[in-house]
Fold each of these.
Amino acid sequence: MDTTAWIVTLIGLAAMAWVVWYFWLSEPKGSLPANQPESSAMKTQETFQIEGMSCQHCVHAVTNALKKLPGIEVQSVEIGRATVAYDPAQISRDQLKAAIEAEGYTVTS
Ligand SMILES: [Cu+2]
């Protein structure tokens, strides 16, 4: 009875030690391929085709309008187009479109 209890305890300790060792060892491996850990919540990527943009002023206006919104990562803005990643739990495509149109441009798709 005592011997069995010792064996069980030792196996339990060995198992716990192995789990700790395993996670310590695997942690750096697991973080290597994750290039964008912060943007994992930004699941939805959307490109808006925008009419009415003609110069860098327009690019800045659209960029700033989008950056003010919550749950959004502005990926690229150029004349006629804006690409963003956003968290649909925080903001909708319609709200993004409305923010661009509030600056005086037209979202065509
Ligand atoms: Cu302009």
Note: Residues 37-107 form a domain with the Alpha-Beta Plaits fold (CATH 3.30.70.100).
Amino acid sequence: MDKYLLELYIFLLGTLVGSFLNVCIYRIPRKKSIVLPRSTCPHCNNRIKPWDNIPILSYILLGGKCRFCKQPISLRYPIVEFLTGFLFWLTLHTFGFTSMAFSYLVFLSALIAIAFIDIEHQIIPDVISLPGIGVGLLLAWLTLPLSVLQSLIGALVGGGVIYLVSFISLAVLGKEGMGGGDIKLMAMIGTFLGWKNTLLTIFLGSVTGSLIGVSLILFKKKKRDDYIPFGPFLVLGAIVSLFLGNRIINWYFRIGDLTILHQILAFPKLSLPILLSVFFPQ
Ligand SMILES: [Zn+2]
């Protein structure tokens, strides 16, 4: 098959998965079944016709409004569909048609659902993150470029660092910067990425989270005490780490140029922004 046609198919397949993730994002926090019944409009309860359920395209054709009641459809629907399509394409483009790539598609789908549920409901549902830890360990055994032990260490490092940060935050500031959901999310991420890319994920998540949090406060979009979910930033960090992590880590430590001692000494530099984010939690 023509290479570009194949890549287009992968993108379209991703948008279909994205459409299913939208169902999960809407239903999981509401404790509804993700299989049945068929989707309805949340405003008028009319059943959505199959031809109004085509990823991205239907949103455009309907002008972002329900066919029946003309209430606006959340922009989240086409965004999730496009994002999933793009990440599916990027994964197979980067890792090829391998079982490893398939594992990462599972990982990315879970991350997308978690990020958007956290944005809308400020929770990270255990029904995704906890099984995700088990799936990560299983896939490490089967396909990932990690041993099960490395995967387990990744989970302990990921969950452990966030636990420590929220513990310090509670002790110093009297409030939790990050919650239990973030701990389980990072444990899940750790099983897929291993400990190095897990630390990178937390680093990237803390930096972007702090920057965006501070700018939202500066531009008066949020108040100092408002809650800003941290999960989406960890998800962003995990996605960047998955695709670019090894390159970033090699560049940062210039492995080969540095002795082991230098590498160890360089680590506080990596942890500094994480500590800063404790004192300026979002
Ligand atoms: Zn409607």
Note: The first helix runs from residue 3 to 27.
